[in-house]
Amino acid sequence: MVTAPPLSLGFSAPEAIPNRRREIDHVRAPVGRPATHSEPPRPFGFALDASLGLAIDVCGSSRRHPLGLSSMADPVGTASSPVTAGKGLDLDDMLAHLELREDELDDVVIPVEAVKEFQKDARWLAIGKVHTSRSFSSEALFGKMRAIWNLSRDLICREAGENLFIFQMHCLGDWKKVVHQGPWTFRGWAVLIEDYDGKEDPEKMTFNGLHIWAQIHGIPELYRKTEVIDDLARRIGKTKEVQMSPKLFFEGNYVRLRVIIDVNKPLMRFVSLMVEGEGRKRLAVKYEKIPFFCKRCGLLGHDHEECGDGAWEPKDLQYGEWMLAVRRSNTQLEPRRFAAPNLAVEAS
């Protein structure tokens, strides 16, 4: 019996289309029959590239071929084909298209005692990302954060995906510093840090919060009460700490707040205090050590020249440096000294 010769495309398929080969490399012959280069004869009109495991319809038919792939009219990598699993589908969706072999179902069992030991190490885990769309070196990030954090014990860092990083501390003090202090920045961008149990898929982690110190300025003394400040603070973010009478390292008369702000929302510029019979009072909000933010939209992670087409007039900028807390000078920080009256002179 004479079989049809393979379709000649004028090049070596494995080398000319390496991406396609990688995409369909997991497609195999039916279970129970090993895939080999000595396939049975095919009807005329099909050519088999055994090295790719792909059946091509020479006549351009759109019907399904014996290897489970469509013709060239149905491109490799569409949602209808199992070869796209791993690109746009999660593992469960991918497994729905595949038949697992017996050796692929051979479990590795972790005893309960071992799990408990592993969980002890995971107590001091954290996961982080840099709030930017720009590219950067992970090694530069690790070096910078080691220098900034200056932990008591050596920090273990590793990449866990695209702009995802896992940090392993070795004691409670180091872990609390990394996770709950800050804000941390890398090249001016916010570094978002979350507690991590070591089990959840890093790709499914949600990074919304950034620990920040904020200030509310100009609160009248009559209304400088804990219950009032708590309500005002919740307008800015999730409140972690309130300092009613902070040491004034910054200019102005303010209440200092430790809050977790949502990085997916614009920064708060003002909070409002409505006093019945007196009207509304606008209170300015200022931020300490805030990462880069857009002066047009108020979001962290980009500059106003990268927002939209970047061509904004000064009047279009709704946010600005006036939102930054200004440190007092060294002379202002020195305690004031009052001279005692000269009683001898007064008596004379």
Helical/strand content category: alpha+beta
pLDDT < 50 runs, ≥5 residues: 8-87
Strand order of the largest sheet: 4-5-3-7-6
Question: Total number of β-strand segments?
Answer: 12
| Biggest pleated-sheet summary | 5 strands, antiparallel
Helix content: 10-25%
Rounded to an integer in angstroms, the radius of gyration calculated over CA atoms is: 32 Å
Mean pLDDT: 77
Q: N- to C-terminal separation?
A: 135 Å
Query: Given the structure, what is the number of helices?
Result: 9
Helix/strand order, N-terminal first: HHEEHHEHEEHEEEHEEEEHH
Rough outline: elongated
Strand content: 15-25%
What's a quick, concise take on this entry?
This protein is α+β, with helices and mostly antiparallel strands and 348 residues long. It is built from 9 helices and 12 strands.
